[in-house]
Amino acid sequence: MTSNQIPDIVIGRLPIYLRALTYMAEEGKEITSSQELGERLGISSAQIRKDLSHFGEFGKQGTGYEVAYLRDQLKRILKVERTWPVALVGYGDLGHALAHYGGFAAKGFEIVVLFDNDPNKIGQKVAGKEVVDIAKLPQVVREKNIKVAIIAVPSSAAQRVADALVEAGIKAILNYAPIHIAVPPDVRVQYIDPAAHLQRMTYYLE
Fold it and tell me: Could you report the per-residue pLDDT of 153-182, keeping only the tens digit for each?
């Protein structure tokens, strides 16, 4: 089965499995089972086995999965056994928080450049990285061979930023702007909208 034939919902669960396995490895656990993983994650053991079966055989009947091996295989499948350089566009309150967040590196990502259009921010050093004029985005993205970007700009600017990123060769965008952006079919977009997630939960409240 090719990568395009595997349901995106399955791909979406792999990072959750990887996170759990990483914690297990840090705890010194060497062997686990789909049952144990399922109990940790609130996912059925049958679903976990079905998801993993898309990519091969990773466990042994009766003995389960070797934690470190399965963790490393999921890293390979998700292509995070390497570190991806990331461009962050927008250095407002959210951009500031993302630039200083220390959790990306361990997951396979490093913010290598920040872009903004505010003259008062351009040239600032942030966590060892310089805030660059957004007008230089195409040149810098190509020079650094960046394929992943984070959009943390107001909704009104998000589509323009997305267009510039795609034109520069970006293939994966994490969009924090609370608006849908149009991109070509070969560019992947993930949306993070905290307000929408809150609204989804309040539906269930009394």
Answer: 999 999 999 999 999 999 999 999 999 999
Q: Decide: helix, strand or coil at residue 44.
A: coil
Q: What is the DSSP letter of 85?
A: E
Q: Look at the alpha carbons of 103, 187, 189, 19 in this order and tell me if their dihedral is positive or negative.
A: negative
* Domain 3-78 -> CATH class: mainly alpha
Mean pLDDT of 27-38: 94
Q: Which CATH number fits domain 84-197: 3.40.50.720, 2.30.40.10, 2.40.110.10, 1.10.3720.10?
A: 3.40.50.720
144 CB-side CA count, 13 A: 20
What tokens does 73 get? 């295989």
Q: Strand 84-89's sheet: what is its strand order? A: 125-126, 129-133, 109-116, 84-89, 148-151, 172-175, 188-191
Q: In the chain, what is the straight-line distance between the N-terminal and C-terminal CA atoms, in Å?
A: 44
